[in-house]
Design brief:
Elements lengths: L5 H31 L4 H28 L8 H40 L2 H10 L7 H7 L1 H21 L17 H22 L11 H10 L3 H6 L13 H26 L9 H26 L3
Length: 310
């Protein structure tokens, strides 16, 4: 395995990445459509919050694994990378297993509830919530502001990863704390963003903070997030020096607030979709909004290649 052909390994890796991405997209679309059929916003919010937690945990694992390995140079770097990758795999596998068990439990509980209903009531519910075919154009016309806000939100968000992977601490003193070293500081920056994202996703639990009833406001806020991109240019990209000599500015003003805005907008748009369609269109609307979300991520990923050359 040490001398595997590079082309064969790269092809295998790309195939696995494609398969994992395909499975994730299908699973996410199905889950959003499934929970939207319940007509309960808090169920959609729970999925969004779960995704936020999934962003925080890998950062914590990476920071712990980086600090667990002595700060050495040269030959020990592959060992550190291997240890981090193994911890990632174990964490992801454990969370996936717990999620599967929880989902199977939910399906059994719903099936059991349906069996306990009288036959007439069961038939009326089944007919009332029969799957309805709705065109994407019809859904877009009803959800144009929410869908556009969601697409822009995640397209703009993908840019942050390009900068975060390159921005270093302004503290370059050799005797600095290890938290300011590149292998730890970058995961810390990702942690700040993902923590902000989780805070934003959780904040919509409070009804008074949700703007789902004003889709155009969410769209305007989504457009204004473009202003975060110039803020990244003020930071220490690639160690070339920062215009604003402050890690506090980078971590709290740029990373944390950018993450909060992403989580808030994403959750508000996904939760509000069911308010603007009829009951029999909710399931289709959930799948449609999930497709828009993935489309935004894909568009943002393509644009990030252009931004990376700045």
């Amino acid at each position: 395995m040490k001398y595997v052909d590079v082309k064969a390994y790269f092809s295998f890796l790309m195939f696995m990445v494609f398969g994992a991405s395909l499975a994730t997209g299908i699973n996410q679309n199905g889950v959003f459509a499934y929970v939207s059929g319940f007509g309960r916003e808090e169920y959609t919010q729970a999925i969004m919050a779960g995704q936020g937690v999934a962003g925080v945990l890998p950062c914590v694992v990476q920071i712990i694994s980086a600090l667990a390995v002595p700060e050495r140079k040269g030959q020990n770097m592959p060992q550190a990378s291997s240890k981090s990758a193994f911890m990632y795999f174990i964490t992801a596998t454990a969370i996936a297993a717990i999620s599967l068990v929880a989902f199977l439990s939910l399906v059994r509980r719903r099936s059991g509830t349906s069996l306990q209903l009288p036959e007439e009531q069961h038939d009326s519910i089944s007919s009332g919530y029969a799957h309805k075919t709705v065109s994407l154009w019809v859904l877009f016309k009803k959800l144009r502001f929410l869908a556009s806000a969601l697409f822009l939100c995640f397209a703009i968000t993908m840019v942050y990863a390009v900068f975060t992977a390159e921005i270093e601490s302004v503290h370059q003193n050799p005797n600095r704390s290890r938290l300011f070293s590149r292998e730890v500081f970058i995961p810390v920056a990702f942690l700040f963003w993902n923590a902000g994202d989780l805070i934003g996703r959780m904040s919509v639990i409070i009804p008074s903070l949700s703007l789902a009833h004003r889709p155009w406001v969410l769209f305007v806020i989504s457009v204004t997030r473009l202003g975060f991109i110039p803020l990244y240019l003020l930071c220490n990209i690639g160690g070339r020096g920062a215009i604003v000599q402050s890690d506090f500015f980078y971590l709290f003003v740029v990373q944390l607030l950018f993450g909060v805005s992403n989580g808030y907008l994403g959750s508000s748009c996904m939760m509000g979709a069911g308010q603007w369609v009829s009951v029999d269109e909710r399931e289709a609307a959930g799948g449609f909004m999930s497709m828009v979300l993935v489309g935004g991520l894909a568009a943002g990923s393509l644009m990030s290649f252009l931004v990376a050359n700045i």
